[in-house]
Write a structure and sequence with these properties.
- This protein is an alpha/beta fold.
- Helices cover 38% and strands 19% of the residues.
- Strands 1, 4, 5, 6, 7 and 13 form a six-stranded mixed β-sheet that branches. Strands 10-9-11-8-12 form a five-stranded mixed β-sheet, covered by helices on one side.
- Helix 3 crosses helix 9 and helix 3 packs across helix 10.
- The longest helix has 24 residues.
């Protein structure tokens, strides 16, 4: 007689467990479910060697690509499938579900935080002016350039990024040439069509080899770059962050910089150590 209640309780527990499994499956985060169904993680990348390189055959390599694949592996996800995307098409493409997240490393800005959620920053820097060797125009920063209408500069598109920051500093629209990517921005300077290409101070890892040198705009804010997700994918972002934070603490970034012969790995790691979440580096660019 005493075994009956125990058996009934056991049967009830088994029934509850059996019921909970389909409920959990039905309530799984939509992005996780979509990736598992597709068998791939579609990620928007840009051409920014040696951080990101997408070959003509569609293979992605680089320090940032390796870092993301390490994160995805820790999450039990497949390696990323790159979608080479122009910078100004990334946010519209994400919102149109053309890919699962933006892995190119967008600047964390106040405007973007209204429509996106960001991972922990994995890159931080001040603005760098990439100029001809010897800095013939003696440039120091965008505020100075704003007072010299004869100075021409190049940058990537985006009123909520570098382009917008320059305009806020007083640089006139006619002084600015928009480059579609980093390589084009560097070429605009080396060809003499602009006096400086401005972007993050570590963006071009070997400026001397490209006929450039970098001048850090000491008046510019420290900004961060991170992986960007749709607002509804915050749970996926949180799982991504759990793996990313562990890798940052373990020194993975320094190791990847060494692997790809990128300088400033230690400097970047120390700078990142001051910030633990995207909101620490929200810029009003």
């Amino acid at each position: 007689m005493r075994t009956t209640p125990r058996l009934s309780l056991l049967a009830l527990l088994l029934a509850l467990i059996g019921y909970s499994l389909p409920v959990l499956a039905e309530t799984e985060d939509p992005l996780f479910a979509s990736i598992r169904k597709a068998g791939q993680v579609k990620v928007a990348l840009a051409s920014a060697p040696p951080y990101m390189v997408v070959s003509p055959t569609g293979e992605a390599t680089g320090s940032s690509v390796d870092l993301q694949n390490m994160v995805l592996k820790g999450m039990g996800m497949p390696a990323l499938a790159p979608v080479l995307t122009q910078w100004d098409a990334m946010i519209p493409g994400l919102q149109a579900y053309q890919f699962d997240y933006i892995g190119a490393g967008l600047n964390i800005t106040e405007a973007r935080c209204k429509i996106l959620v960001f991972s922990t920053p994995y890159y931080a820097a001040q603005t760098g002016l990439y100029v001809s060797p010897g800095n013939p125009k003696h440039l120091t920063g965008l505020a100075q350039i704003a007072h010299s209408s004869d100075i021409k500069v190049a940058t990537l598109p985006g009123l909520d990024s570098y382009q917008g920051y320059a305009l806020k500093q007083g640089v006139k629209p006619e002084q600015i040439t928009i480059a579609p990517d980093i390589q084009a921005g560097a070429a605009i300077v080396t060809s003499g069509r602009a006096d400086a290409f401005f972007i993050g101070q570590f963006t071009i890892s070997d400026p001397q080899q490209k006929g450039l040198e970098v001048v850090v705009d000491e008046q510019s804010p420290v900004y961060g770059s991170a992986i960007a997700f749709r607002k509804e994918d915050v749970h996926f972002r949180d799982a991504f962050n759990e793996q990313l934070n562990s890798l940052i603490r373990s020194g993975a970034i320094q190791n990847l910089y060494e692997k790809y012969r990128i300088p400033n790995g230690d400097t970047l790691a120390k700078l990142l150590g001051k910030f633990t979440k995207a909101s620490d580096l929200v810029s009003k660019l």
